[in-house]
Amino acid sequence: MATLGNPKNTIEVLQKYNFNFQKKFGQNFLIDMHVLEKIIRAADINKEDFVLEIGPGIGTMTQYLCECAREVIAVEIDKNLIPILQDTLSAYKNVEIIQQDILKVDVNRLALERNQGKPIKIVANLPYYITTPIIMGLFESHVPVESITVMVQKEVAGRMQVGPGTKEYGALSLAVQYYAKPQVVANVPPNCFMPRPKVGSAVIRLTKHKEPPVQVAQESLMFALIRASFNQRRKTLVNGLYNAQGIPYSKEEIAQALGRMGLSANVRGEALTLEQFAQLSNLLGE
């Protein structure tokens, strides 16, 4: 089987099937073998592993995963890619292709049936507009995951790593850092893709924490506070939370909780660390 990381082979497959790129699915296929090898190394795939791949495209990375893993399930939303995948992966017996939106797949059930409920490894080259809902969905539904190695827009990778006080810091930074340790493993320029995206990309590995780094009584309340405080970044935290739907506290209660934490009532959400959001959530939740 021809290796798809080679641009010539990718073009041949696309021409053979007369494939048209779908803007709505944000399709950009990787055509750089060095980057593919870096992703596989970063994901640390071995023969024991069950791997879930999100967005296999024409199977470029899937071929590499099949070589290294025990079993691969590739979830692809675009039905036009299914016949191509069946062709490019025909040499492999350890792969199953599912045509579905990953947000509708019961990943917990897959892990249970295919990996005895043990943590799975996830590898993905995600369309940029849906990166956050997919990653948050996987974490919030408490899927047993060991790591997620994912190609994302460079600035999104940056956002996942930053701390308070920076412009990039936001709900995504806090959520990712609550669940996992983020590490950028490669920067990937636009010319590594077909068609070329307008922005740079990065591969980031999110290694799931065994235990969350902060203790919080109600995870859902903490995330509601985080989301509300960044929805209106320019407002003070007291006003942002008071105006948010679904947060049932008065300005006095919020200011009082901040006071107990030694913070001013004029503080903004972007100044708080993950520990402080956990503390605020615990105080309000009482």
What does this protein look like?
The chain is an alpha/beta fold. The chain has 2 domains: 7-208, Vaccinia Virus protein VP39 (Rossmann fold, 3-Layer(aba) Sandwich); 219-285, Helicase, Ruva Protein, domain 3 (Orthogonal Bundle). It contains 12 helices and 9 strands. The strands form 2 sheets. The protein has a 7-stranded mixed β-sheet, sandwiched between helices. α9 crosses α12 (274-285).
Residue-averaged pLDDT: 92
Q: Can you tell me the CATH superfamily of the largest domain? A: Vaccinia Virus protein VP39
Q: SSE order, as H and E?
A: HEHEHEHEHEHEHHEEEHHHH
Give the helix proportion (percent range).
40-55%
Quote the CATH topology of the largest domain: Rossmann fold
Strand content: 15-25%
Approximate shape:
elongated
- Total separate domains: 2
Biggest sheet overview: 7 strands, mixed
Given as residue ranges, the uncertain stretches (5+ residues, pLDDT < 50) are none
DSSP E strands, number: 9
What is the radius of gyration computed over CA atoms, rounded to a whole number of angstroms? 21 Å
Structural class: alpha/beta
| Corresponding CATH architecture of the largest domain | 3-Layer(aba) Sandwich
Continuous helix count:
12
Under CATH at level 1, the class of the largest domain stands as Alpha Beta
Termini separation (Å)? Answer: 61 Å
In order across it, which strands form the biggest sheet?
Answer: 4-3-2-5-6-9-7
